[in-house]
Amino acid sequence: MTPVLSYDELAVLIKARAGIQVDPMDLERPGASFDEFGIDSLGLLGVVGELENRHGVQIPADAVTHKTPADFVAAVNSAVKAGA
Amino acid sequence: MTGRTAVLTGMGVVAPNGIGADDFWKATREGRSVLAPIDREGCDRYPVRVAGLVRGFDAASFVEERYLVQTDRFTHFAMAAAGLALDEAGLTVDDPFGIGVVTAAGSGGGAFGQRELQELWSRGPHHVGPYQSIAWFYAASTGQISIRGGFKGPCGVVASDEAGGLDALAHAARAIRRGTEAVVAGAAEAPIAPYSMVCQLGYPGLSTEERPERAYLPFAPDAPGFVPAEGGAMFVVESESAARARGARIRAQLAGHAATFTGAARWAESRAGLAHAVRGALAEARCAPDEIDVVFADALGVPEADRAEALALADALGDHSARVPVTAPKAGVGRAHCGAPVLDVAAAVLALENGLVPPTPNVTTSDLGLDLVTGFARSAELRTALVLSRGLMGSNAALVLRRTP
């Protein structure tokens, strides 16, 4: 099935909520970590809040502890799928 | 003197009359007043009608967006000013633990906080962003300057009222004396926002005069109170020996400081408090009263407070108080809380360098026995400057600055 959160959307949300410009291709690169882009947990918390508002779901608080975009996207999509 | 004398090697200014020290000094020495009707959205229906507003400030040209989304305008000002000061100082970070940051704050991030609280009440808690937890807070500017520069030395925030701007520089000088290599220090405020405006409305000294050229007339017999403002200045403070060793341009020495507290709005009592602070600052600077070449006055613009300041100068400087040029450039820009005294420090440094006492804008007469410089800047041989500041809640501070050979 189509994932709800794509890397394109994640890049847009990171730019809007954390003020950091990042290429979706870089987010998707295997081994990429939020650290290397300067995205901290407060920045991710803003992204999570925006996703919750957009999709009307609850995303587990530990989503912001994921160190890599891949883990974060997987956690968000499973939460959205479960909540849908 | 010992090798741990604190000196200023960089200066960044964001003021209603100019962004950057050059523009600020040009407007200041010309005595240009930029006080204007408050036309900012949500701020134009209060009894306070005139302020000093920073215009044309493009935060993104000074600070990366990742910091801008996390911070209020007061931190944007502080980060921009700190960046300008650091660029000028040419400081390199060899040991991150050797560089600290200290700012003073009295207003905080009112606009950011209000925006988030409006989200809370209109759309609910899920629409409040996480940066609300840090952006409104007094400590935000110190923290963000530290993070941006990678400065891991002693960091702090001085919350001691408007005079805290001077206390922040003294705090930095103490850190230098204890061995820290450099401290980024100063203050910037952004209180011209609806919530922050409302917080100020209870101050009896606030001017409700609608004509900008009549709204803030310190030391004049008919002074109607003071005008609020936004902006501030940041400095790089380092030890004189370290600055000389790396060939940095030394702009002035922080020679002495003292602070006292005499209670909220007790202007008559501020006379003794201010005089005591001046004596303490002179003693620390090993400076005789008649060595003071220019005074940058607190200049509240409330007749009782102005009288107390004139008497304090007479108490502390004796006969010299009637001869020394006294000026209040802030009459043309307003009082930016903790930003006000540090803008005076910036003006004092530039005055020392240029041998020019800038005038007190808009004021034409004073009968308090002071040699108040009005109209045009006055040429003078300037070696030592005294900067005074008082807060509405009772803080008094004095700072002695000395030109270095």
TrEMBL record, chain A:
Q: Is the Transmembrane keyword given for this protein?
A: no
Carrier domain location: 4-84
* Pfam families, per database record: PP-binding
The protein's UniProt keywords, in alphabetical order, are: Phosphopantetheine, Phosphoprotein
Please give the InterPro entries that the UniProt record associates with this protein.
ACP-like_sf, PP-bd_ACP, Ppantetheine_attach_site
Membrane-spanning residues? none
Alphabetized Gene3D superfamilies for the sequence: ACP-like
- Full protein name: Minimal PKS acyl carrier protein
Tell me the classification of the organism that encodes this protein.
Bacteria, Bacillati, Actinomycetota, Actinomycetes, Kitasatosporales
From TrEMBL, chain B:
Q: Output the SMART domains linked to this UniProt entry.
A: PKS_KS
The keyword Chloroplast is annotated on this UniProt entry: no
Q: Which UniProt keywords apply?
A: Acyltransferase, Transferase
Pfam families, sorted:
ketoacyl-synt, Ketoacyl-synt_C
Ranges of residues in domain Ketosynthase family 3 (KS3): 3-403
The EC number of this protein is 2.3.1.-
Q: Name one GO molecular function term.
A: acyltransferase activity
Q: Keyword NAD: yes or no?
A: no
- PROSITE patterns annotated for this entry? KS3_2 (PS52004)
Sorted alphabetically, which InterPro entries does this protein's record hold?
Beta-ketoacyl_synthase, Ketoacyl_synth_C, Ketoacyl_synth_N, PKS_Beta-ketoAc_synthase_dom, Thiolase-like
Q: Extract the signal peptide range.
A: none
What's this protein's family per the entry? Belongs to the thiolase-like superfamily. Beta-ketoacyl-ACP synthases family.
Q: What is this protein called?
A: Minimal PKS chain-length factor (CLF/KS beta)
